[in-house]
Each structure stands twice: as structure tokens, then as C-alpha cells.
Design brief:
The protein contains five helices and 15 strands. It is α+β, with helices and mostly antiparallel strands and 317 residues long. It folds into two domains: 83 residues, no CATH class; 221 residues, no CATH class. Strands 4, 5, 7, 9, 10, 13, 14 and 15 form an eight-stranded mixed beta sheet that branches. Strands 3, 6, 8, 11 and 12 form a five-stranded antiparallel beta sheet that branches.
């Protein structure tokens, strides 16, 4: 990876994604470029100088001449901030996607997860967490059952989308152009898969849409089983009147709810734990647990906003 000199002519440096290279390699004549994206990861907009002595033509000169990153194909690192086009020029705030830790069914685990969402990869581990929590009430019970995600006691991972500002009341509706109705969730396929969440129990496995050469699976989630509109705050109501605790303070868009099912490899062996993870001791008997830390990335398909969610897969030795 390197930087390209941007002090003279405008540079266009484009590469194909993993999916694009795969389709090009098929060599059947069907390859067509139908989608593209621009990003501004290198740009520091604080360099805009509205008081430049040479006049308005120089206000953004430093920004325009900022060296740009050389295009590279690692999808896990490239284009963190994608540019979008909006028809409404009166928008003052752009939406975010925030992890919800307010709803009790979505709590992260601070006891053995260091604030991550914890997935107990087998029934032995899940039972150990449940037993320890029933004895101590210390929050160890906040976990996702990786063997049986539909367990009514299993936690959810929930992301809230909307305007995180107090300048616009939460009683207002978010602009339709800013509302996310589809999310892309990326997860290392060696560790687990996406399943439906919710409070009613039961879960349905979701098939991934694409898996890249780094074994990262992408899931495109748009159905009501995963994505639902978040109700606006009732006019004149107190916070206790809200049916759902939400992580954004302004107008709400949608929320994404899902759970994780541990892979067969994690459930039945310790190979990946010993190769990629580590161990810790916990409990009155100082039992040993294996763990692997990883990231789940959630991206809004409309705005391109990205959220990285830390998760920890745990297996009792």
C-alpha cells in the first residue's frame, strides 16, 4: 500500500473487488461493471481554510492536493468512508448506526467478554454461564447460545440507525432518503453464521450472499425478520413511554437484530481456539475456557456507514 501524488492532475486509480475479479476470471463474456463506489478516507476536511489570504479559490486547495491512497483489493481494509449522493440539499445531519446496549435483551458481557458480545459455542459452556449467573447474578448470563440461538434466554445483537443529535427531536420522522432498509453483515465464516434474533424464541439460519478469499462471509439482510422500523418517540411522552430503548437520540430509522450460530468446528473441536485464540480461568473452580476474539462488521447499504462489533467465542475446556 502506498500514496499517489495528487498535487497535479486528477488521479483515477480503480481496482476490482473480490467478486469482480472472480467473475472476470470466469472468462465467459458475462463480466460487466455495473456498480462502483468512491471514498474519502484520506481527506481531512478541517484543512478547509475559509480565511486563506489568496481568496476563495484557495480555500480547499490543501484538501484537493492531499495525497490519496493507492487502490488495493483487501475488502476488510479499503474504503471505510464511502461517498453518497443525496437529492435533499437541506440535510444538516447524516445518520449513524449504533450498537444498542440499552435493551436488556441486547446486553454485552462485561464479566468474561470485556464488553464484547459473547457466544457460548456449545451447551456445556452455555450451561456453565447460566449456572454461575443464577448463583451470583453477576451478568454472566448475557450471552448468545451458539448451539441453540433460538433459546429464549439467548441475547441479541441489535444495531440502531438514525440521527444521533438532540438538535432534532426524536418525535420527528427521519428523511426517507436517509433510512437504511438493507444491511450488509460480514463475519468470518470459520467461526459462525447469522441467524434470526428477537424475543419470541426460535431462529432461522441465513445463507450468506458471498464469501471472499479471506473466508469472510457477507450477508445482505433486508427482510422483516432482521430489519424493522424503530418507532418515533411519542409526542409529549416521557422516556418510559417508549416501547423500545434506542441508541440514537434524534429521529430514528430502522433497527437490525440478529444472533450468531457457532460453526461446527468451534462446537466440536478446539483446533481454531488453540490456533487463533487463547485461554482464561474463571469461576470458583478456576475452570479453563478457550476464547477467540473477532469483529462483525455491519454496513448500511444506503449510506455506507460502517460499524464494527466486537464478539468473543468461548468454549469451556
Amino acid at each position: 500500500m502506498g500514496f499517489l501524488d495528487n498535487s497535479g492532475d486528477i488521479i483515477l486509480d480503480a481496482v476490482l473487488t473480490d467478486a469482480g475479479r472472480k467473475r472476470l476470471a470466469e472468462g465467459n463474456g458475462s463480466f460487466r461493471i455495473t456498480k462502483y463506489a468512491f471514498g474519502d478516507d484520506e481527506v481531512d476536511y478541517s484543512n478547509y481554510n475559509a480565511t486563506h489570504a489568496s481568496g476563495s479559490a484557495y480555500y480547499d486547495l490543501e484538501i484537493l492536493q492531499t495525497p490519496v491512497l493507492e487502490a488495493f483489493t483487501n475488502n476488510t481494509a479499503t474504503m471505510k468512508s464511502k461517498l453518497i449522493t443525496l437529492t435533499n440539499n437541506n440535510i444538516l445531519y447524516l445518520p449513524i448506526i449504533a450498537l444498542n446496549n440499552l435493551d436488556k435483551s441486547c446486553y454485552a458481557n462485561n464479566v468474561v467478554g470485556s464488553g464484547s458480545h459473547v457466544i457460548a459455542v456449545d451447551s456445556t459452556t452455555a450451561q456453565a454461564f447460566t449456572d454461575a449467573d443464577s448463583q451470583n447474578g453477576n451478568g454472566l448470563g448475557y450471552y448468545i447460545d451458539g448451539t441453540n440461538p433460538g433459546n429464549t434466554n439467548s441475547q441479541n445483537i441489535r444495531c440502531d440507525q438514525g440521527l444521533n443529535t438532540s438538535e432534532i427531536p426524536a418525535t420527528y420522522k427521519i428523511d426517507a432518503e436517509l433510512q437504511e432498509n438493507q444491511y450488509i453483515v460480514e463475519l468470518d465464516n470459520r467461526f459462525g453464521t447469522i441467524v434470526t434474533g428477537g424475543s419470541g424464541g426460535g431462529s432461522v439460519d441465513q445463507s450468506f450472499s458471498f464469501i471472499d478469499d479471506d473466508n469472510v462471509a457477507s450477508y445482505y439482510l433486508s427482510t422483516q425478520a432482521y430489519v424493522t422500523p424503530t418507532p418515533a418517540k411519542p409526542i409529549g411522552g416521557s422516556p418510559n413511554d417508549e416501547a423500545i430503548n434506542t441508541a440514537v437520540s434524534g429521529p430514528r430509522g430502522t433497527n437490525l437484530v440478529f444472533r450468531i450460530k457457532a460453526s461446527t468446528n468451534l462446537r466440536t473441536s478446539t483446533y481454531l481456539f488453540t490456533r487463533l485464540g487463547s485461554t482464561f480461568q474463571f469461576g470458583s473452580n478456576n475452570d479453563t475456557y478457550y476464547f477467540i476474539d473477532t469483529i462483525i462488521r455491519v454496513t448500511g447499504a444506503t449510506t455506507g456507514y460502517k460499524l464494527d462489533i466486537p464478539v468473543r467465542f468461548i468454549k469451556k475446556q
